[in-house]
Amino acid sequence: ETGVTQTPRHLVMGMTNKKSLKCEQHLGHNAMYWYKQSAKKPLELMFVYNFKEQTENNSVPSRFSPECPNSSHLFLHLHTLQPEDSALYLCASSLTSGWTDTQYFGPGTRLTVL
Amino acid sequence: KNQVEQSPQSLIILEGKNCTLQCNYTVSPFSNLRWYKQDTGRGPVSLTIMTFSENTKSNGRYTATLDADTKQSSLHITASQLSDSASYICVVSDPGSQGNLIFGKGTKLSVKP
Fold this sequence. Notes:
The structure holds two protein chains of two kinds. By secondary structure, chain A is mostly beta strands. Helix content of chain A is 0%, strand content 56%. In chain A, the strands form two sheets. In chain A, strands 2, 4, 5, 6, 9, 10 and 11 form a seven-stranded mixed beta sheet that branches. A four-stranded antiparallel beta sheet of chain A has the order 1-3-8-7, with no helix packed on it. Chain B is globular and about 45 Å long.
């Protein structure tokens, strides 16, 4: 678990708040991902960064804003969220974004929107 | 639409018993299939990865099988332990999809003493 870390582990916020999720990987990988995991649903890919460049935005609402300042760090900025955005947000990294590379996941941030 | 279906949705077994989890997929073209284990409150961890040419792969007490013709995979857990309690997620790589991975909903396994 020390390979990919996420903070905070738990977050409760109101719909008018602004908060940020942080992800850091210590594996020397070049690709990083944000996923949303809701109860009884498959993991949903949100964003993909490869060598700091965003390569995928999977039709995610603009109230979620990613930032990748370097290959080791990934942020997800949150503002004016809805209660249905409550979920486990997982960060992952892989050597590259190619389909042969295994993705390593962080522990996730459990987000509750009131 | 490419999909990955897992069964059962949940399973309860006694410690020491064996169990088998199923994964059916319709992803085409198909490149590889992974099984992940996700403990409660943690991120998924890769257990096995198989390409279309591999039929079986083991990782300790976990053995995954793959039939690329019928598009079915199974994960067999031998001599279950309490620490095996987790969700097991089947993931298929689709080179043509965004992010390349198609996730199943997972099977929630509970091992009871």
